[in-house]
Amino acid sequence: MSSEDAAPSGKKLLDQVREVLRTGHYALQTERTYCDWIVRYVRFHGMKSRNDLEGGEAKIEAFLTHLAVTCDVAASTQNQAMNALVFLYKKVLKQELTERISAIRASKAPRIPVVLTREEVQRILPLIEGTVGIVVRLLYGSGLRITEAVRLRVQDVDFGFKQITVRSGKGGKDRVTTFPSTLETVLRSHIHRISVLHERDLEAGRGEVYLPHLLGKKYPNAGKSFGWQYLFPARQLSQDPRSDTVRRHHLDQSVVNKAIKNAVRQLGIDKKVSAHTFRHSFATHLLQRGTDIRTIQALLGHSDVETTMIYTHVLNQGAQGVPSPLDDLLI
Predict the structure, then answer these.
(1) Under CATH, to which class is 110-320 assigned?
(2) Closest by alpha carbon to 256, among 281, 280, 239, 273?
(3) Annotated catalytic, 247?
(4) Which member of 247, 250, 279, 285 is catalytic?
(5) Domain spanning 13-92 has what CATH number?
């Protein structure tokens, strides 16, 4: 079966998947990821028609086992594939999965996050300038995920209360986190520059930004208001892959990652540093300053404090912080 095989209604399979995802207001990245997994699943089993999708439990189990044993994927990757296929059967095909899916599970080894020292952060930041530099400083200064940072709107920054509102973060949750006062001057200047850019877009008949869910219909003019504009807009206009509307999206994450990679390489830092490393460093450095774990949990937006507790292991480096006996020798 082609992954685009038509349903009795005339709709192709992936078109149906996309329609259900969009009706449920799933993120575009989730849509792309789920569709990719469904295509891989169909190809793995060599399906020729929709009838081949029957008996989903056994087929999902075989596919997930293949991912764990043959492809050696991480546990999170296998879970992602599982979520996509369960969505396909339950939400799109309307088929209940009544039998247990007992696939061989990918191993989930405990990993200590990569964290930069304060000195390393201090050396990296001056090498990343401009708009990308502001983004990276917010990753470290506010503990943001990179997706959260690039999706910020102008109205999400509250200079008066020194806080940033993260809307629809991981798990669809909103939260408030700290705003570094040292960024106030540079960020106010940045906002002024993008307000000029927005005015030019409006004069050119553009200037309407993407609004989440049904806000665009509820508030028809909100998309053109400055408060709803992305805090870090892209340089060029682009076509929305869902609506085909041409408008200004937010800064691409790859631009930020590339700048970080270049700075780390230039300094000769051997750690595997990514945008997420600055979020890990934010949490760890707050712990070093004596901030309580529950406060850090709230700032990071973790549902379970156990997730936040991983940073305590970073502080207890060297086997629970025990010094080596070699350090006691006078040699």
Answers:
(1) mainly alpha
(2) 273
(3) no
(4) 279
(5) 1.10.150.130
